[in-house]
Amino acid sequence: MAKSKYTDQEIFDKVLEITQAVVPKFNADGITMASGITKDMNLDSLNFVMIICKIEAFYGIKFDDKKWQKLQTGQELVDEIQRLLAKKK
Predict the structure, then answer these.
(1) What are phi and psi for residue 22, nearest 5 degrees?
(2) Model pTM?
(3) What pLDDT does residue 38 have?
(4) Cα–Cα dist 28/41, whole Å
(5) Long-range contacts of 55-59, Cβ-Cβ distance < 8 Å, separation of 24 or more
(6) Helix, strand or coil, per DSSP, at residue 73
(7) What residue ranges define each of the domains in the chain, with the CATH number in brackets?
(8) What digits encode the pLDDT tens for the residues 37-49?
(9) Cα–Cα dist 28/2, whole Å
(10) Which among 26, 84, 25, 29 is positioned nearest to 58, based on CA atoms?
């Protein structure tokens, strides 16, 4: 898969930053790309929708509704962002 100008870590750091802005009580300590979105990051579906919207606005991308709902880990989210950014070029 072609990569964007961003590294996976840069994208993940931005996701954590956006998550913190949307969910002020969110604690990123110990959260890695392998962490589960609902299980480890403790995000409910409404919070995740708001985070997805902010990610779309920041990167100028659009997630497919069926696709983002199946994302389980931070790495899967990063991979999907990378895929959408590569497609955008």
Answers:
(1) -80, -40
(2) 0.91
(3) 84
(4) 8
(5) 55/14, 55/15, 55/18, 55/81, 58/14, 58/18, 59/84, 59/85
(6) strand
(7) 8-88 (1.10.1200.10)
(8) 888 888 888 999 9
(9) 28
(10) 84
| Pair of tokens at residue 23 | 């969910």
Q: Which residues pair with 52 in a beta bridge?
A: none
Tell me the average pLDDT across 13-35: 94
Which residues sit opposite 36 in a β-bridge? 73
Range list of H helices, the chain: 8-22, 45-59, 65-68, 74-88
Contacts of 50 by beta carbon, 8 Å cutoff, 6+ apart? 22
Locus of tokens 């509704």: 65
Q: Which residue has the tokens 């899967």?
A: 76
